[in-house]
Amino acid sequence: MEILLIELKKDGETPLYEQIYEQIRIDISGGKLPVGMKLPSKRKLGEFLDVSQTTIELAYGQLIAEGFISSIPRKGFYVQAIEELAYVQHVQITDKVEIQKQNTYTLDFSTGHIDTNSFPFTQWRKYAKEVIDESSKELLLLGDSHGDIELRQEISRYLYYSRGVDCSPEQIIVGSGTEQLMPLVIRILGAKATYAIENPGYPLTHHVFYHNNREAIPIPVDVEGIDVQSLQRSEATVAYVTPSHQFPTGTVLSAARRTALLNWASSDDEHFIIEDDYDSEFRYTGRPIPALQGMDKGDSVIYLSTFSKSLMPSLRIAYMVLPNVLLNRYKNAFIHYSSTVPRLDQHILARFMADGHFSRHLNRMRKIYKRKLQTLTEALKPFSPSVSFSGDEAGMHIIITVHTNQSEEALIEIAQKAGIRLNSLNSYSTGLVSKEPSFLIGFGGLSVDSIEKAIDRLMEVWNIKKCS
After folding, report:
1. Peptide bond into 385 cis (omega under 30)
2. Average of pLDDT values for 163-172?
3. Which residues, 6 or more positions from 8, have their beta carbon under 8 angstroms from its beta carbon?
4. Range 1-29 average pLDDT
5. Confidence tier at 86 by pLDDT (50, 70, 90)
6. Complete DSSP assignment for 42-83
7. Helix (H), strand (E) at residue 294
8. CB–CB of 152/174 below 8 Å?
9. Angle between helix 343-354 and helix 357-380 axes, rounded to 10 deg
């Protein structure tokens, strides 16, 4: 064939090669160009259409890639049989899935935010440059499935000196978030395990139990933490707890209940405690609360923690410390698994920790968050007795309770209409745990200078006046 009748819109938005490709593809699919027919050469078709040979080459190249034509050296281009091509005609979609727009807030009291302005960018950039270098090309390959030993050694040292966790690097498994590690824990504990969860408690972990078809029994939390007597009366074999700073109430598990909880775990070989130590670094009064794992003599505590609060949520590095009795189970179950955390990120963090920058960063952030907490509590005091607060000894949020005739739902709606985001305490519970409207006030992402104005604004929309 000497020519192809192709109509080109040279002033259109679609590139010329795409127009040529599309018309030839349609003609082949419709049978207008029969199988085996020879197409014009790139030079002849380019001259006929008054376009460059490069344009024709791009069009032919796409047709070859999709199997519509073939190229035979020194002979030319030929139409291919397309009976077996999985060609799908464009179909107009009538039922479109509507993408929900995320609400934009002028004021956000979310508990997951950190102080991004205080991140040690200079030091982090230094280690990133050192690691992302040709001399580290082996890091482009898969590493240890438990996480690279350099990072696990640093985590082990850090946990021993800061949290009293006694473990070897071999017991540490590095993963991309608590929600990624928890299903692994659930699998090695077996299908017969029944879980006790704090009520109220961390919702994401509760969803993990649900999605993995595991029974979860809510156990009430009071001023001393999880009610161990209720746990003992239940049929639970595994207790998921946040003892150092209970989420969301902020309660610290009392010494008596720590002992009772460990005794419960040691009473049966299949009893285990999952200790989620999610933000233990940030305690502002008294001595740090030691981890349950360090007190455990029965090898029954699975320790979980993350760098989300201490460094940044987007880093997606968490870790767990498995008791030795579960380590072989884990190795046998996940022998073919690879680590879900990029090795480059692991080594940046390992060097950051090894040179002491992580400890210095934590010390600095404790002072910053302590000042924010003090500013927050001082901003709330003038609204007493209409508003009270609790859980102010640790962490990056507190609980406020509003003593009003208005419902919790009404206060949430009023705040949202004013562009204010906050969550209620009852939204983290199974059933009603607070009769009066109570809310989590996260201060991690707020600047010190903005906190008082933020509280004044919240109280203004709720029509709560300062006491005279």
Report:
1. yes
2. 95
3. 16, 19, 20, 49, 51
4. 85
5. very low
6. HHHHHHHHT--HHHHHHHHHHHHHTTSEEEETTTEEEEPP-T
7. helix 292-295
8. yes
9. 80
Residue type, 255: A
Report residue 142 CA to chain centroid gap.
22
Rounded CA gap, 417 and 328, in Å? Answer: 53
* pTM passes above 0.90: no
How many CB atoms are closer than 10 A to CB 229?
Answer: 12
Q: Tell me, what DSSP letter sits at residue 218?
A: E
Q: Residue 26 has which token pair?
A: 């349609």
Query: What is residue 104's predicted lDDT score, i.e. its pLDDT?
Result: 79
Helix 16-29 crosses helix 53-65 at what angle (to 10 degrees)?
Answer: 40
Mean pLDDT of the chain: 90
CA distances from 186 to 212, 267, 269 (A): 8, 20, 16
Percentage of residues in the chain with pLDDT exceeding 90?
65
Q: How is residue 37 annotated by DSSP?
A: P
Give 232-241 pLDDT, tens digit per residue.
999 999 999 9
Q: Is the pLDDT of residue 334 over 60?
A: yes
Sign of CA dihedral 393, 396, 402, 408: negative
Give the three-state DSSP class for 14: coil
Q: Which two tokens stand for residue 11?
A: 């002033």
Q: Nearest Cα to 423, choosing from 459, 390, 448, 397? A: 397
Helices (H), 132-239: 149-163, 178-189, 203-211, 228-233
Please tell me the distance from the alpha carbon of residue 152 to that of residue 169, in angstroms, as a whole number: 5
The whole-angstrom distance between residue 231's C-alpha and the CA centroid of its chain comes to 29
Closest CA to 347 of 175, 119, 127, 125: 127
Whole-number Cα distances in Å, 464 to 312, 392, 439: 35, 22, 15
Which residue, chain included where needed, has tokens 């982090």?
Answer: 124
Would you say residue 1 has pLDDT above 70?
no
- pLDDT confidence bin for 83, thresholds 50/70/90: low
Exposed e or buried b per residue across 291-302, where buried means at least 16 C-beta atoms within 10 angstroms of its C-beta: bbbeebebebbb
Instruction: List b or e across 121-142, with b for residues whose CB sees 16 or more CB atoms inside 10 angstroms.
Output: eebbebbbeebeeeeeeebeee
Cβ pair 461, 420 in contact under 8 A: yes
Q: Which of helix, strand or coil describes residue 342?
A: coil
Q: Which of 2-16, 28-42, 151-165 has the lowest mean pLDDT?
A: 2-16
pLDDT at 88 over 60: no
Residue 291 reports pLDDT greater than 70: yes
CB 293 within 8 A of CB 301: yes
